[in-house]
Amino acid sequence: MSALMFQRLARNFIKNGYFPTDEDTTSRILNAIVPAASGAMRVLDPCAGEGVALAEVKAHLGGDKAEAYGVEYDRERAWHAKGLLDRCIHGDFQDCLVGKRQFGLLWLNPPYGDLVSDKSGGPSDGKGRKRLEKLFYQRALPSLAYGGVLVLIVPHYTLDREFSTWIAGQFDRVCVYKAPEERFKQAIVIGVRRRTADAAPSSLIREQLEAAGRGEGLEVIPEHWDNLPYAVPAATGAEVKFAYSVIEPTQLADELRRWPSLWEQFEVRFAHVETTHRRPLRPLSRWHLALALAAGQVSGVVHAAGGRRFVVKGDTHKEKDVKTEYEELPDGTTSEIRILTDKFVPVIRALDFTPHSSTYGQVITIR
Predict the structure, then answer these.
(1) 86, burial (CB in 10 Å: exposed 0-12, middle 13-18, buried 19+)
(2) pLDDT tens digits for 134-177?
(3) CA 300-305-308 angle, 5° bins
(4) Judging by beta carbons within 10 Å of its beta carbon (0-12, 13-18, 19+), is residue 150 exposed, middle or buried?
(5) CATH architecture for segment(s) 7-254
(6) What residues are paired with 365 via a beta bridge?
(7) Where do the structural domains in the chain lie, given as residue ranges?
(8) N or C: which end of the chain has fewer CB within 10 A?
(9) CB 320 within 8 A of CB 364
(10) Distance CA 232, CA 192 (A)
């Protein structure tokens, strides 16, 4: 078993469903993984914690030959991980913009627990309980390249029929073991992503995972790996799509310090391209002008024929038109029926800045 480099930096505290991967488990998993024969690699951990496990993966794959990307929701852990990984986002993975099939290894030790009943966008509950582990698996899977390696660390009892069917249909060379640390009842699933995810799931793999979910025949991952190792493929594509959709002031300030030339490349970094507006083929009618103004497509300074000047901005919002009807029932009582109809209301606001006007500086609203 190889010695690990970063475990001395781990504080390993448990908070809000955070169960860090221990040193022994990490070391044994790494014994089963080898770097690609050539080329740089990218690895991703959507629940990076303090970044220790992924930093160990990066070092194991050759240090400079691998780029480590992580996401962590907890502020303290995220900023600790930023010091260990190449890129780490402090935020919710569901709000991250991550390109498809960009990473050769997906290290996934997600939060453990049930989804709340009103959680939107969660996995189907047709064959099993709604779990955080399933939600993170579904959201993170598209980022893994075909031929890439999955390391999934979850409580073994989450491997129900539904979860096992997903994995069996999307991965080859699947193996499942028990973690040497038994405190959290963790199962370790390793596999290679298959290209034809729509093919029929392997019944053998599914049955193996379901049995592991019941705790049947689950062996501890060996200390010395004697089987065929899992090779992490080289990265493809030069540009990496890895960003946070929410502007977080502290992270923005950190990026500005790291990239002082950011504003010089504003158009490239923020995909802001100046476009030339073409004049219409013929003058717009009053109806076209009113429609464009209400839709917010026309704004700016408007000069009236009498010399008045306004800054205008149009918008349209939706309101509810309520209609109440009463119906007398056979038993003599009255039933009240309320009918709500959506109604789109255009609103145009104009700021009068005509000199010496009685409404100078006032906002005029036209509905």
Answers:
(1) middle
(2) 999 999 999 999 999 999 999 999 999 999 999 999 999 999 99
(3) 60
(4) buried
(5) 3-Layer(aba) Sandwich (3.40)
(6) 349
(7) 7-254, 286-366
(8) C
(9) no
(10) 9
Contact at 8 Å (CB) between 102 and 145? yes
- Sign of the Cα torsion 205, 211, 214, 219 reads negative
Burial class (CB in 10 A: 0-12, 13-18, 19+), 327: exposed
Select the more confidently predicted residue: 25 or 239.
25
Running DSSP on this structure, what letter comes out for residue 101?
T
Burial letters for 171-181: b for 16+ Cβ neighbours within 10 Å, e otherwise?
beebebbbbbe
What is the full DSSP assignment across 220-238? BPPSS--SPPEEEPPP--S
Closest CA to 187 of 222, 151, 154: 154
Tokens of 18: 């955070």
The interaxial angle of helices 132-140 and 161-170, nearest 10 deg, is 20
- Dist CA 61 CA 55 (whole Å): 10
Q: Which two tokens stand for residue 187?
A: 């199962």
Is the Cα dihedral 99, 138, 40, 88 positive or negative? Answer: positive
- Token pair recorded at residue 151: 């390391």
Place of tokens 């582990």: 133
Give yes or no for residue 12 having a pLDDT over 60.
no
pLDDT of 338-349, one tens digit each?
888 888 777 888
The pLDDT tens digits of the residues spanning 276-333 come to 667 778 888 878 877 777 776 767 788 877 888 888 887 777 788 888 887 777 777 7
The DSSP bridge partners found for residue 98 are 242
Please name the helix (run of DSSP H) or strand (run of DSSP E) that holds residue 252, with its range, or none. helix 249-258
Distances in Å between the Cα of 179 and the Cα atoms of 12, 25, 190, 340 are: 16, 6, 12, 57
Q: Helix or strand or coil: residue 208?
A: helix
